Fold this protein.
Amino acid sequence: MTYWFHQADAGSEDWFETGDDAIAVRQASFRGPDSSASVAASRSELAWVLDKFEPLGAQLYGARYGELANGPVDGGEPVSEADFETAWQRARHSRNISAPETVGPLPQGTRLTGTVSVLPWGPGTVGLFVDLGLPVVGFVDMAQLPFDPEGWPDVGTVADFEVATVRFHLEPPRSAPQIRLRQPTTPPLGQPWQRPERR
């Protein structure tokens, strides 16, 4: 069976969905004077991310959605599924829009070298994908690239990029997380993209 519990204390609030073993299947937690979400994590999502995208994917998931409680959940006030879902959606929205970008394995501003792998919609449209040599793909939105498509890098271009954020799409059908990148410098129009300097 599935159970839903609520625990509240001064400055903290936890909502749990568990099975018969009392292990948290999903958890929504809020902390601090503004009751901001500290956890909005699902055990099945974490398992899927770990399986598909190796430990890096799981670390990125933890940075975005927080860490599930370890071991059985100790009691709490039973609540309805509807009440849990309301708390879950509130926590999930909060973590999607305001999770700190300064934690985890790839905090905002991390410099990565990658190879432009595909422009699936052509230069000047939507964006391009970057192979970072990691199990998670990199993506540069068109807003981070030159306005003129002639200034976009060709497939095979090696360049330095900065991490802007990490995005997950975990509602069915699930899709790969993306390391959203920005280009710290772009060459003048007509000039080649320079290979990164050796560090």
Summary: Residues 41 and 74 are 18 Å apart (CA to CA).
